[in-house]
Every structure is written in C-alpha cells, then in structure tokens.
Amino acid sequence: MLFSSPEFLEESSGMDLLENIDQFHTTCTQLLLHLEFSPNDKSALENLNQSVRQIKSLLLVERVNVLSPLIQSVEDLLEELSSNTLALTTALNDVLLLCLLLIRETVEKITFGKIEEHESQEIKDLCRHTTKIVTADEHQVTQQIENALSQLLLEHQTVPTQLLPTSATTTTLEKLPQWLTNFGIDHHDDLLLMLNLTPAVESRSPRWAGRTELITKLSLLMNQKANNPSDPNQLAMAAIAHDLGMTFIPLEILHKNQPFNDLDQCTMRDHLRLGAEPLKRLGWLEASEMVLQHHEYHDGSGYPVGLEESQICDGAKILAIADSYFACSVGNEYRQQRRRPQYRAIMEINRFSGTRFSPFWVKMFNQVTTQ
C-alpha cells in the first residue's frame, strides 16, 4: 500500500494539500538558494527547518505515507547542517532542492490520480542514498552526495529535449544544419564560417561542449515565443559567435579557479569587443550589437557600458539569459560529464529577474524551458 487510508486523495483535499505544499516549497527553495551564498545565516536555516516541518505535518495529516521517509531524510540532512556536521555544498544543495521538488511533484500526482508502484520504489531507493549521506564518515560523504544526486538526476533531466545538441560532426559544413533551417534561418556563408569555427572555440574549455547549439536554440525559441521581435538571422549569428572573443583569452585566466584580479577582469571583459568587432566588419551590425551588450544588466549594473534596460537591444537580453542558463547548468564543482539539474538552472535565472535579466524575457524563458 502506498498510503494507509485513503489509498489516494480526494480531489478537494488534494488540491488544498498541493496549494499548501506549493507555498512551503517556494519558501524552501528561496531559502536554500540564499543559504548557498550565505551559509552562516542561522536564522535562514531555522526558517528552512520550520518550513520542512510544516511540509511534514501536512503530509502526516493527509497520511501520504509514501513520502514520510523522504521528508524525514530532508530533515536529517538539515539537522546535520544545523550542527555543522555537514557543509552546504552546491551538490548537497541540489540534492535538497530536488528532494523537495520530488515531494511537490508526488503530491501533484496523488492529487490528480495515483503514483505507480515503481515510483514508490524509486523514492525508497533515493531515501537509502540520502540516509548514507548522514551516516557516512568525512571521507565518504562527498561520494554519497554524488550518488544521491545521480539517483535524483535519473528522474530530472538536465536539459530540455528540444535544446539537446545534435550529433557532433568534425567535417566542414557546406550548408546550414537542419536544426537551424527549422527556425527559418537563411543560408549565408558568414554563418557557415562561424559554425565551422565552433569546434575550435568549444575545445578551449572542457565544459563548453555543445554550448553553441544549446544557446542558439534557446535564443531562437525565446525569440519565437515572443513573435520574433529580434531578427532571427541576426540573433542566430550573435548566438553562434557570441563568445568567439573568449578564444583569445589566455587559458590561465579562462580556467582560473581563484577570484579574478582587476587585470583578469579587464581581460575577460574584453572578449565582448573581440567577438563583436569581426561581426561588425562582416556587416552583421545588429548581431554585433547583441554580442557587445549581452553582459549588460536590466538594472544597469552590467558591462561594458552599464546600459539600463531600455538601452539594451532585445537580442542581447535574450542572449544574456541563454548564456547564463548554460553556465548555470554546468557547475564548476561538477565533473565534465555532470550537468546540473535543469530545475536548478531555471531557478537561478528567475532569481535574477528584474536585476540582471528582463522580467519579460525571463517569462519567455520559463515558457520555453518548462513546456
């Protein structure tokens, strides 16, 4: 039996439960994101504990027993954090975020039907992994966190199917690939040139594989969702070539793990000019402007000029989100083959809506990545 009684929730009580779980889930995710950047905020950690206890109480009242071990696992992990036995790493944060998301998704399934037996077993398997995090010694805890995260990622794909890159090719392209022509992008020799440079650009970092196609697809889908206010051909060129300038950044800076000094910052920021200038010379003026502006922020705190929202072109606003989405989906703490949860990357983008990113384009991003 998945539940003691009733076997599934009545629609009215299920909807009430889902609404309440949604509220506490939102609070929990906001607090977890805050704690990742402010891990010593004891007040936020206590508020997180209280919200999780509220979720547990709601599940107990409705006798959703299938989730009892999972919410207990989350409580146990938070207790370890409160006692400073565990540190809130990015990977552990992702485990907690995805556990809470799984709880919310399971309640939704129960509300509109029943979960399958294999789903119940998957929750039990996950609980075994999370329990091992709590019981592991200091030499094993990192591996146990990785194991739990791997189990969670089986159920939460890291990149929407529509954004996944096609099979890589090492041959020189003589015509536009199908994924570009599907967007109605016109054939142009300059586009082919930039596409053929992509493998060399992406080889500069082990974390860049597939980034050009993903960022270009996401940019074009967002633009399409808003009825193409930005010229699709210009946007495609900008997305494909937007980090061409990174190719000319010294590797010791590009792969530096320590904070950048002032000289490093200047060198990194110059990649905008280095990427925009060739496009300008080739006559792609709109694309050049998009590349030059894609690190400008909605609130005026970006670079290179510090433009405000009304001064930034739509293509740059789109590209800023698509570029950041890829960066969020590839965490520096993760091995090359490890992608971060899509859910986490989406939350990161939404966290900066109205500051770094245009709220309108964040809305378009949400529609594309969650459809």
Description:
The structure is a single chain. The protein contains 17 helices and no strands. 35% of the residues are buried. The chain is mainly alpha-helical and 371 residues long. The protein has two domains: 11-153, HPT domain (Four Helix Bundle (Hemerythrin (Met), subunit A), Up-down Bundle); 161-370, Hypothetical protein af1432 (Orthogonal Bundle). α3 (68-82) packs antiparallel against α4 (90-111). The two termini are 33 Å apart. 62% of the residues lie in helices and 0% in strands. The protein has helices at residues 11-37, 42-61, 68-82, 90-111, 117-135, 141-153, 178-181, 189-202, 211-225, 232-241, 251-254, 262-269, 271-281, 285-293, 314-329, 342-351, 359-370.
Which structural traits does this protein have?
disordered N terminus, Four Helix Bundle (Hemerythrin (Met), subunit A), 371 residues, HPT_dom_sf, HD/PDEase_dom, HD_GYP_dom, 0% strand, HD-GYP domain-containing protein, mainly alpha
